[in-house]
Amino acid sequence: MLALLRVPRLEPSIVRLGIADAGRDAHAAPAGRRTRARRLVRCAALAAVLLGAAGCDRGSPQATVRDAFTSFETRCERIPAAAPEVVAIPLAVAEDDSRSVAELTRLHGGAPSSHRTMGLTLTRLVHEATIDFNGVTDPARGRTCFRTQMRVELFMRPLTVYVALEATDDPCARAVIHEHEMKHVAVYDAYLQEAADRLAQALPAAFANEVLYTGDEARTRDAVETRIRQFLADHLQQSSRELELRQRSVDSPEEYARIAAACGGQP
Q1: What is the C-alpha to C-alpha distance for residues 153 and 209, in angstroms, rounded to an integer?
Q2: Are 18 and 29 in contact (CB under 8 A)?
Q3: Beta strands in 76-142 (DSSP E)
Q4: Which residue, 150, 153, 156, is CA-closest to 228?
C-alpha cells in the first residue's frame, strides 16, 4: 500500500561549468567540469600611418583616413558596451518507470535496508557561458584594449522523474507518487527563471563593462575568464543551497501525511 511507501527528499546535484569554445560542440564534452574558452577578439581598423600596422577591419578609405587621426584611447572608449545576457532554458522533463525500488534507493544515496525510494527527481543545474572579447590592437606598441560581451545560459539537464517499477501496477499509487515528484519539478521550474534574473542583475555589478587596457592580451583574457569562472562557480554553490532548502519544504510532514492517506491508506 502507498501508506507504507516513503517518498524521499530530492538532493539536487550541482555540476559542471562551461565556457563555450568556438569550433567545439557545447554539449559534446563529458559530464563534469568543462573549461572551454571561446575568445573572439574583433579588431577595429588601425591606420598604418598612425600605429605602424594595418588594422583588422576593412573600412572605407574615408574611415581609414579619419581613424589615422584618432587616438588609440579614443577608439578604445568607442568600443560598444553590452550588458551580459542571461537566458533560462526551459525545462525538458523525462519520465522513467523502469527502475526498481532498490535501484532508486541507490540513486538517491540511501541504504536499501533502511530506506525505500518509490519516487525520485534528479537533475543538474548548469551554467554555460560564452565570452567574446571585442577590441582594438596597436601592434606597433604592443598594446590592446577590449570590452567583454557575455552570454550565460542557465539550464537543468537532464531532468528525470522516476517512479518505482513496483508502483506501476497500482494506478493510484503511481499517480500519487508522480504528483509528489512533479511538485519538485515545479520548484525547479520556478527557481530557474528566478536564478537567471538574479544572475542578470549581479553580473553587471561584478563585471563593470569598462574598457580593459593591456600589454599582455592573452594573460588579461585568462584573468577575466578566471574571474568569471569563479563567479559562476560561487553562484552554483549558492543556488545549490537554496534549492536544497526549497526541496525540503516540498517533503513536509503534511505532504507525507497526504501521501500516506491516499489510495485508501490511513494517516
Answers
A1: 19
A2: yes
A3: 85-88, 93-96, 119-122, 124-138
A4: 150
Quote the CA–CA distance of 189 and 198 in Å, as a whole number.
15
Lookup: cell for 178: 508522480
Q: What is the pLDDT of residues 10-31, one digit of tens each?
A: 222 222 223 332 233 333 332 2
Query: Across the strands, what pairs with 31?
Result: none
Which pLDDT tens digit goes with each residue over 80-89? Answer: 988 899 999 9
Report the predicted TM-score, pTM, of the whole model to 2 decimal places. Answer: 0.68
Low-confidence ranges of the chain (pLDDT < 50): 1-66, 266-267
Q: What are phi and psi of 31, to 5 degrees?
A: -60, 150
Q: Is 164 helix (H, G, I), strand (E, B) or coil?
A: coil
149 vs 130: CA distance, rounded Å: 8
β-strands 13-19, 119-122 pairing: unpaired
Q: Which three cell numbers stand for residue 142?
A: 604592443
AA identity, residue 225: E
Please, which residues have CB within 8 angstroms of residue 114's CB and are 6 or more apart in sequence?
A: none
Length of the chain: 267
| Partners of 153 in the β-ladder | 87, 128
Pair 17, 127: CB distance under 8 Å: yes
What is d(CA 232, CA 125) in angstroms, rounded to the nearest whole number?
12
User: Could you tell me the CA-to-CA distances from 65 to 47, 139, 164, 213 in Å, in that order?
Assistant: 7, 18, 73, 24
Q: What is the pLDDT of residue 67?
A: 53
Rounded alpha-carbon distances, angstroms, from residue 47 to 76, 197, 217, 220: 14, 42, 20, 24
